[in-house]
Specification:
The structure holds 2 protein chains of 2 kinds.
Chain A (H helix, E strand, L loop, with lengths): L3 E13 L5 E13 L3 E5 L6 H9 L6 E6 L2 E2 L7 E4 L11 H11 L4 H14 L15 H14 L4 E5 L7 H18 L2 E6 L2 H7 L2 E6 L4 E6 L12 H4 L5 H18 L1
Parallel strand pairs in A: 3-8, 3-9, 6-7, 7-8
Antiparallel strand pairs in A: 1-2, 1-4, 4-5, 9-10
Chain B lengths: L1 H10 L19 H24 L11 H14 L2 H32 L1 H15 L7 H8 L3 H25 L3 H9 L4 H38 L5 H10 L3 H29 L8
Classes of the chains: A alpha/beta, B mainly alpha.
Chain lengths: 262, 281
C-alpha cells in the first residue's frame, strides 16, 4: 500500500448529555487511510463508526486528537472530503444533471468542464437515460447513484460514505457494491466506508478497521489478503475464493464477542 | 359453526366474489362516488334551507330563502356597486398579506437557519402570538384614525407572528443531511442558505402562506365589521341596520367563495412552481 492520505491520531469524542454530564463515544482512535485505497469501518452499533466518519468530514469536531489530510489539519467540512449519506440527499428541485453539477458550480468550475464531468460521472453510475429527470422520479438506488456521482464529480481527495446502501433492498445493494468496486478501480478514488454488513465489508475493503463499542475504539485492523491485493467487481466470484469464508467467520466471531460484552 | 357460515355469507355473493360494502376501512372510493357525495351533501343543505323557508318552519325575515339570497347578490353586484366593495376587500387582504409576508418569510427562514437569530426573535415572536389581534383594534383606531391604515395594521398583526413561526418551523424541518451534503461539497454559509435551505423550504413556505391567507380573510371581516364604511363586511353591517338578512347572507356567500378561490389559486401556484413534487414515488 502507498502513502497515507488521512491520519487520525489519538482521536476521542465526548457528547454532552442534557443533564450536563458527558458520554464518551469514541476513545483514543488512531488510524491511517492510504491513498487510492478503500478503508471500511466495521463494528457493532454504538461503536462510534459514524461519529469517526463525521469527524473525518469535519461535520463534528474531535474532543481530543488530530486529524490530518496529507500535511494539513482537518478543520470543518470542505470540498476535498466529500460525503455520501445513508438518507437520500438529492436536491429535489434540481434535475439529475444539475444535482451532479452542483458542487462544481458552487466551486466556480466553468460551464463546459461542468457539463463534461457531469456527463462522465452520470454515465459511470449508469444514469445517462435519466440525466434530465428529477430525483423524485427515481428509485432509492438511483438516488444514491446521483449522490455518488455528485460527490465524485466535485473531485474530492477522499470519498466518505456512511452506510450508503443501508436503506436499499438486497439486490440493489449488491449492484451498488459492485459499482463501488468498479469506481475504486477506474477512478482511483480513496474511500472510507462505514457499514455493519460483514459481506459488504469483505467485498469492498482493502483494509477493514474493526471497532468495538462503548466507547468506540479500534479492536483490530484486518487486511483481506485472500484477495491478493486485487479488487474483484464480481460478488459471485469473491465468495468462492479460498479465504473468503474464513474471513467472514472471523468477523462474525468479532461481532459476537462484542455482542456478548454488552 | 353456523356463525362462521353466516359471516361467510355476509362477505360473499353467489359468484364467490366479495360484496361491495358502503363502509370499507381506508379503501379509496371511486372518482364518481367522490363527486356524487360532494354534490350530494350540498344538495341536502340547500334542500333543507329551501324547505324550511318555504314550509314556514323559520322566520322568513331572519332566514331568507336561498333564491332570495342569490337574487339580492345579483342585485347588489348589478345595481348597487357591490363589486367595488369586493375589490376593496380583496385589495386590503392582498396588501396586508404581502406586507406581512415580506417581513415574515425572510425572518422565519433566517430564524430556522441560524439559531443565533432564533434566540433573538423567538422570545419576542412567541409572546405576540398569544395576543389576539382584534384586541388591538381600539388602540389601532386611536393611532391611525379611520382610513385604510388600521385595517391593514390589524391584518398585518394577525398574520405576521403566526407566519414567522410556521416558516421557521418549516425551515427547521429541512433535513440536516441536505445541509451537510452542501457543506461537504464546499458550500459556504451564503450558498447553503440560498442554494439549499431556500429552495428546499419554499414549497412548505407556500403551504404556510396558504394557511395564513385564510386567517387574513377572518381578520378582514372583523376589521370591516368593527370600523369601516367600505368593503364586504361594512356592506353586511349596513344591511343589518335595514334588516336585509338576504344581503348579509349574500356577503357571507361572497367571502366564502373568495376564500375558496384564493385557496385554489395558491394550490395551482404550488403545482406550477414546484412541478418536481408531482412525481413523488
Amino acid at each position: 500500500m502507498s502513502d497515507a492520505l488521512l491520519t487520525m491520531k489519538g482521536i476521542s469524542k465526548d457528547f454532552e448529555l442534557a443533564d450536563g454530564s458527558a458520554i464518551r463515544a469514541v476513545n483514543d482512535v488512531s488510524l491511517t487511510v492510504e491513498e487510492n485505497s478503500v478503508c471500511v469501518l466495521l463494528g457493532p452499533s454504538g461503536c462510534g463508526k459514524s461519529t469517526i466518519l463525521r469527524m473525518m468530514a469535519g461535520l463534528e469536531d474531535p474532543s481530543a486528537g488530530d486529524i490530518m489530510l496529507k500535511q494539513h489539519p482537518v478543520m470543518g467540512p470542505a470540498r476535498e472530503r466529500g460525503m455520501v449519506f445513508q438518507a437520500y440527499t438529492s436536491f429535489d428541485w434540481l434535475s439529475v444533471r444539475k444535482n451532479v453539477e452542483f458542487g462544481m458550480k458552487i466551486n466556480g468550475v466553468g460551464a463546459r468542464e461542468r457539463k463534461e464531468k457531469a456527463e462522465h460521472f452520470i454515465k459511470l453510475v449508469g444514469l445517462e437515460k435519466f440525466i434530465d429527470a428529477y430525483p423524485t422520479q427515481l428509485s432509492g438506488g438511483m438516488r444514491q447513484r446521483v449522490a455518488i456521482a455528485r460527490t465524485l464529480a466535485n473531485g474530492p481527495e477522499l470519498l466518505l460514505m456512511d452506510e450508503p446502501f443501508g436503506a436499499l433492498d438486497a439486490e440493489t445493494r449488491w449492484h451498488m457494491q459492485e459499482l463501488m468496486v468498479q469506481i475504486a478501480n477506474e477512478e482511483n478514488t480513496s474511500m472510507v466506508i462505514v457499514t455493519h454488513d460483514l459481506e459488504e465489508a469483505i467485498f469492498l475493503a482493502d483494509k477493514i478497521i474493526f471497532l468495538s463499542a462503548h466507547p468506540g475504539r479500534v479492536k483490530e485492523v484486518i487486511i483481506p489478503d485472500f484477495k491478493d491485493g486485487k479488487r474483484i467487481a464480481d460478488k459471485e466470484h469473491i465468495v468462492q475464493l479460498p479465504g473468503y469464508a474464513a474471513l467472514e467467520h472471523k468477523l462474525m466471531r468479532l461481532m459476537r464477542e462484542e455482542g456478548e460484552r454488552e | 359453526m353456523s356463525e362462521v357460515n353466516s359471516r361467510k355469507a355476509e362477505n360473499q355473493s353467489l359468484t364467490g366474489k366479495r360484496n361491495k360494502r358502503f363502509l370499507e376501512v381506508r379503501k379509496p372510493v371511486s372518482r364518481r362516488q367522490k363527486i356524487l357525495s360532494g354534490v350530494g351533501i350540498w344538495a341536502v343543505f340547500f334542500a333543507v334551507w329551501y324547505l324550511s323557508t318555504h314550509a314556514g318552519w323559520v322566520n322568513k325575515l331572519l332566514v331568507p330563502a336561498p333564491e332570495q339570497v342569490f337574487g339580492s347578490l345579483y342585485e347588489l353586484i348589478a345595481e348597487r356597486g357591490f363589486m367595488s366593495d369586493i375589490g376593496i376587500s380583496i385589495a386590503r387582504v392582498i396588501g396586508a398579506f404581502l406586507m406581512a409576508s415580506v417581513v415574515a418569510v425572510p425572518l422565519g427562514i433566517l430564524m430556522g437557519t441560524f439559531p443565533a437569530i432564533e434566540a433573538i426573535f423567538a422570545p419576542f415572536v412567541s409572546a405576540w402570538r398569544y395576543l389576539p389581534a382584534p384586541s388591538f383594534i381600539p388602540i389601532l383606531l386611536m393611532w391611525f384614525g379611520t382610513g385604510e391604515a388600521p385595517k391593514l395594521a390589524l391584518l398585518f398583526i394577525g398574520v405576521i407572528f403566526f407566519l414567522i413561526t410556521l416558516v421557521m418551523d418549516a425551515t427547521k424541518n429541512v433535513r440536516a443531511e441536505l445541509i451537510e451534503t452542501a457543506l461537504t461539497l464546499g458550500a459556504n454559509r451564503r450558498i447553503t442558505l440560498f442554494n439549499v435551505v431556500l429552495p428546499a423550504v419554499l414549497p412548505d413556505v407556500m403551504v404556510a402562506m396558504r394557511q395564513m391567507l385564510a386567517m387574513a380573510w377572518t381578520y378582514l371581516v372583523i376589521a370591516e365589521i368593527v370600523a369601516s364604511t367600505t368593503g364586504i363586511g361594512a356592506m353586511m353591517m349596513r344591511a343589518r341596520r335595514f334588516l336585509n338578512t338576504d344581503e348579509i347572507l349574500a356577503g357571507i356567500l361572497v367571502i366564502g367563495a373568495l376564500g375558496l378561490l384564493f385557496d385554489l389559486l395558491f394550490a395551482q401556484l404550488h403545482r406550477w412552481l414546484f412541478p418536481y413534487l408531482r412525481e413523488k414515488r
